[in-house]
Amino acid sequence: MKENELRSELVRIANKLDAQGLNRGTSGNLSVRYGEGLLITPSGMGAEGLTKDDIVWVNFDGTTRGRWQPSSEWLFHRDIFVQRPEFGAIIHTHCIAATALACLRKDIPPFHYMIALLGGDSIRCADYATFGTQDLSDNALLALRGRKACLLANHGMIAAGEDLAEAFKIAVEVETLSELYLRTLQAGQPVLLSAQQFQDAQSRFAGYGKAAESKETGAE
Ligand SMILES: [Zn+2]
Q1: How confident is residue 218, by pLDDT bands cut at 50, 70 and 90?
Q2: How far is the CA of 4 from the centre of ligand 1 (A)?
């Protein structure tokens, strides 16, 4: 995609996050990989009234181009893109259920098979660090090892994907699973899936993806 299209896509997804209740006010931020850097939403601005010209470009070396300052969380966006080449887009929000669990500093265990979609048998909660710091970035990268999402203690969550569409899908999944886990905890202690049960779900997801791909290839 061209830079202008990516800027428009960031604005569109920022509004979609608001519309679906996954983000509120000016707290969240999102980015896409572009060239030797990233395009990211500006600091202190919400989705309302946001235009593609408000989006800021940040070089991997930290220099910026744009009319505003980049989001105060640009550091972990940059570090994730540098260290995880498979990701092309990152969404960070303080969505309610995921953030509630993050305030308990709880990992989300394999209580539901959909956890497998996020790359591992849990959603880890990164250790607490002040927002915008290198420590927070380091902690987030640790929690994201082998995963597409993590919680940030007393802060929020991060969801990543190969593009904005996937990152959005992952963000929805994190919030849905968080809500389910919170409700389950209110009712009692969840029965966790065994390692075997979880593996079976993982291989079914893997097989499902392959079947869909080969079907597409066959149709061409
Ligand atoms: Zn935040």
Answers
A1: very low
A2: 26
Centre of ligand 1 from the C-alpha of residue 1, in Å: 27
Measure 130 CA to ligand 1 centroid, in angstroms: 10
Domains of the chain, residue spans: 3-219
Q: Is 212 a residue whose pLDDT tops 70?
A: no
Please say if 73 is a catalytic residue: yes
Annotated catalytic residue: which of 3, 5, 48, 73?
A: 73
- The pLDDT mean for the chain works out to 93
Q: Residue 202 to residues 39, 73, 89, 195, 211: CA-CA distances in angstroms? A: 33, 32, 23, 10, 14
- Under 8 Å between Cβ of 144 and 80: yes
What confidence tier does 1 reach under pLDDT thresholds 50, 70, 90?
confident
CATH superfamily of 3-219: Class II aldolase/adducin N-terminal domain (3.40.225.10)
pTM assigned to the model: 0.93
